[in-house]
């Protein structure tokens, strides 16, 4: 059951985490991926009083959050997508049928899909053509969700295909959004923050390996060390004690120039 906001006039944004699973990013509990943290940071960078709630697909599965409660939000941002489906110990990523089942009944908020599901579709099993849920959403973000959300909150207009060229904007969002972890059901003891250091692959110039989606993100773009440290410091201040520096194709290639 969600607590009612003390300030009903505040912008209400739900980040519904359907859990991502990519070769370069873990987001199924006990991990929390950077996606919801960056989204929360983007929202709070535009409106520091915004009522941003972190909800998981398990909250819907278990009835902890109802469709009626989702309908009080102004915006529902769904983070989902399993580029490389695996086996999981505690729970499992949202299936497109689940997304459809829950989200098609949510009719008041603006509904946004981002994460790998927005960019690549749902890979529901290895080698199976991704199924789509596009018609359930107002916006399907092929670019970066936090960039889209920031622009949308500013002007109610945004290009869902906009992809950040570097980490300049993420610098602020990663720090601001750290506080969202306190809403994770596993907080504080059984949660691991996935940390991003870079994305992209040098082999993208030749198409890369046939089984891998990383070349679709282009050549490597690296985060600054001080930005990574600032994010980890923020998360630590918010009570996170477990980190995985795993959100990149290869940690040994971090900042490699050849
Ligand atoms: S070298 Fe590049 S394309 Fe090949 S597996 Fe690694 S990240 Fe993917």
In words, what does this structure look like?
- The chain has one domain.
- It is α/β, with parallel strands linked by helices.
- The strands form 3 sheets. Strands 1, 2, 4, 5, 6 and 7 form a 6-stranded mixed beta sheet that branches.
- Helix 4 links the parallel strand 5 and strand 6.
- The mean pLDDT is 92.
- It is globular.
- It binds iron/sulfur cluster.
- Iron/sulfur cluster (SF4) binds next to loops.
Order of helices and strands: EEEHEHHEHEHEHHEEEHE
| DSSP summary, beta strand count | 11
Helix content: 25-40%
What's the pLDDT, averaged over the residues? 92
Which structural class do the helices and strands define? alpha/beta
Task: Note the main sheet.
Answer: 6 strands, mixed
**Which kinds of small molecule does this entry bind, naming each only once?**
iron/sulfur cluster
What is the domain tally?
1
Low-confidence stretches: none
What is the assembly state of the chains in this entry? single chain
Q: What general outline do the C-alpha atoms trace?
A: globular
List the main descriptive attributes of the protein structure presented here.
258 residues; 6-stranded mixed β-sheet; 3-stranded parallel β-sheet; 11 strands; binds iron/sulfur cluster
Itemize the secondary structure elements and their pairings.
Layout: E1 12-22, E2 25-26, E3 31-32, H1 34-46, E4 51-56, H2 57-62, H3 67-70, E5 75-82, H4 96-103, E6 110-114, H5 116-120, E7 139-140, H6 145-155, H7 168-176, E8 192-196, E9 198-199, E10 221-222, H8 225-237, E11 243-247
Parallel strand pairs: 1-4, 1-5, 3-8, 5-6, 6-7, 8-11
Antiparallel strand pairs: 1-2, 9-10
Bound molecules: iron/sulfur cluster (SF4).
């Amino acid at each position: 059951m969600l607590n009612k906001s003390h300030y009903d006039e505040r912008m209400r944004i739900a980040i519904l985490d359907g859990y991502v699973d990519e070769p370069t990013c873990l987001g199924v509990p006990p991990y929390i991926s950077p996606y919801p943290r960056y989204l929360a940071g983007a929202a709070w960078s535009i409106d520091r009083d915004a009522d941003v709630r972190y909800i998981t697909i398990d909250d819907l599965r278990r009835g902890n959050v109802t469709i009626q409660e989702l309908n009080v939000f102004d915006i529902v941002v769904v983070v989902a997508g399993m580029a490389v489906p695996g086996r999981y110990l505690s729970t499992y990523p949202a299936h497109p049928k689940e997304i459809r089942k829950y989200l098609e009944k949510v009719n008041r908020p603006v509904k946004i899909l981002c994460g790998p599901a927005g960019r690549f579709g749902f890979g529901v099993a290895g080698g199976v053509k991704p199924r789509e849920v596009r018609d359930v959403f107002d916006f399907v973000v092929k670019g970066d969700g936090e960039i889209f959300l920031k622009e949308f909150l500013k002007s109610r207009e945004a290009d869902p295909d906009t992809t950040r060229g570097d980490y300049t904007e993420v610098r602020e969002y990663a720090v601001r959004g750290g506080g969202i972890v306190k809403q994770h059901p596993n907080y504080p003891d059984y949660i691991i923050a996935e940390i991003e250091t870079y994305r992209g692959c040098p082999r993208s110039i030749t198409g890369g390996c046939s089984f891998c989606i990383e070349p679709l993100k282009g050549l490597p773009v690296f985060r600054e060390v001080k930005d990574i440290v600032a994010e980890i410091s923020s998360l630590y201040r918010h009570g996170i004690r477990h980190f995985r520096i795993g959100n990149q194709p290869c940690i040994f290639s971090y900042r490699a120039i050849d």
